[in-house]
Design brief:
The structure is a single chain. Helix content is 23%, strand content 33%. The chain is globular. The strands form three sheets. Strands 3-2-1-4-5 form a five-stranded mixed β-sheet, with helices on one face. The protein is α/β, with parallel strands linked by helices and 289 residues long.
Length: 289
């Protein structure tokens, strides 16, 4: 039935009592469905949220001609401070909830509203807007189940992904490149991990809510690391890059990401000759600061 992305938080708008307005945003990953509803800070609780989500479901069911019992497959959210409130509402509605940074459509929508919607509202106060920041955890060693025999950086043109739904992929997820204004000729960098246990590895990864890959220098050891970020705030060390040539390839990977709206991919295959993918995820690193 599809995946919803939601955000329920205060906005940079004050009401007549000089209190922050709260707003619920609901959309699907393609933004073919969007729902907006606001309330006062005193109303912002799990009960109000449950009722608003029920209203959103009714509109979604009607617009998509779905039965009344239809529910989204799951709801993704990125604001960890809101987890308890959102969890209570979703539990009563029997909708699975997932902390995730794969809320790409929601990030884009929020950015647009911050630029062109909120400033037009009475009571707009830009300094009252909450910073979009996530908890920064210390990277952990990659679980044994996710360690491949080898890996390499590769690049594909964005146009290649137009046929991704026809590829033989056991586990994975795409994202709408056209919505992100990525041109068809744009080189998209990626990482391919090879393993004889590729399907089991990709199955593990599918439960981690893949966010993005990032090359970063460790502040304690000063070593360059390739990190995999997952879920709401988890970080994993894929590899420590000591070889100068590999470090240069990693920098090229980051440079290509910047030129491609931070879009990149992670693939898992049994070996370099395989024509199928055990796992394939299109990813995007989003700066929420």
């Amino acid at each position: 039935m599809g995946v919803w992305e939601i955000d329920f938080y205060s906005r940079p708008i004050l009401d007549e009592q000089q209190k922050k307005i709260w707003e619920l945003l609901v959309c699907d990953s393609q933004r073919t469905f969007e729902f907006v509803k606001s309330c006062s800070g005193s109303e912002a609780n799990s009960g109000w949220l449950k009722t608003a989500l029920q209203e959103a479901m009714a509109q979604w069911q009607e617009s998509a001609q779905l039965p009344n019992q239809a529910r989204p497959e799951k709801i993704r959210f990125f604001r960890r401070p809101m987890q308890n409130m959102i969890s209570r509402a979703c539990k009563e509605l029997e909708i699975p909830l997932q902390p995730s940074r794969r809320t790409f459509a929601l990030y884009q929508w929020l950015g647009q509203r911050q630029q062109s919607v909120y400033p037009q509202q009475p009571g707009y106060q830009p300094l009252t807007g909450p910073p979009l920041q996530l908890e920064q955890k210390q990277p952990q060693p990659l679980p044994d189940a996710l360690i491949g025999t080898r890996w390499q950086f590769v690049t594909l043109e964005a146009a290649t992904f137009a046929e991704m739904d026809q590829w033989e992929i056991s586990f994975g997820e795409s994202l709408p490149l056209e919505m992100l204004a990525v041109g068809p000729d744009t080189p998209i960098p990626g990482l391919v991990i090879y393993s004889p246990r590729s399907v089991a590895m990709a199955g593990w990864m599918s439960g981690l809510e893949m966010a993005f890959l990032k090359v970063e220098q460790d502040s304690f050891t000063n070593l360059t690391q390739l990190l995999l970020e997952t879920g709401g705030s988890d970080r994993w060390v894929v590899a420590t890059l000591k070889n100068p040539q590999v470090q240069a390839e990693a920098q090229d990977f980051e440079t290509a990401k910047q030129k491609a709206q931070q879009v990149h991919f992670l693939a898992v295959q049994s070996d370099s000759h395989s024509e199928t993918f055990a796992g394939f995820w299109l990813l995007q690193e989003v700066n929420l600061a």
